[in-house]
Design goal:
This protein is an alpha/beta fold. It contains three helices and seven strands; from the N terminus they run βββαβαβββα.
Length: about 170
């Protein structure tokens, strides 16, 4: 589906407006997810964020392709993903989700194979990892931090933002 030439203003639960200026561009079809501070606490404690399973399932329904774009090395990520699946905290397919191999100081979306940068949304908690010139592709999620509250709504808020972004998708 093609966007209109008018910017779309979206206001989420936290009332911060998100404005997308993507004239004549297709809607994003690929979701790139950070791991630490986004989906789980960190690679050491591996505490899943509340709502993780439902978030991943809904994102899989919204986006034809999902990838992990994390600073955690792939072997460690796979270990964490398998544990999350075994504990019922993530869907079975999550253990085999595509992993993006990258290097550098920022998460350059050009490292995602077979994808145009304009087709990707990066969900990450830290702006420092957003590659210069790709800020429009970034959606910031609140950092999942100690004391890791069971009342954390970060994934629920992000899901609402993603659903609003894609609301006009057929």
């Amino acid at each position: 589906m093609v966007r209109t030439a008018h910017p779309t203003k979206i206001t989420a639960i936290d009332q911060r407006p998100i404005i997308f200026h993507q004239m004549n561009k297709t809607l994003p079809t690929l979701l790139a997810l950070d791991l630490e501070g986004t989906l789980i606490s960190n690679a050491m404690s591996q505490i899943p964020r509340p709502g993780l399973h439902a978030f991943l399932e809904r994102c899989a329904a919204l986006f034809p392709r999902m990838v992990m774009f994390t600073t955690v090395k792939e072997d460690k990520f796979r270990q964490i993903a398998r544990l999350l699946v075994e504990e019922g905290m993530a869907p079975a397919w999550y253990a085999d989700i595509e992993y993006v191999h990258w290097h550098g100081d920022t998460k350059n979306l050009e490292f995602v194979p077979d994808a145009a940068v304009s087709d990707i949304i990066l969900v990450d908690d830290f702006e420092i990892y957003v590659h210069p010139g790709q800020e429009a592709q970034w959606m910031q999620i609140a950092y999942f931090d100690y004391p890791y509250s069971e009342d954390d709504r970060g994934l629920f808020v992000m899901l609402e933002k993603l659903e609003m972004l894609l609301a006009d998708r057929a």
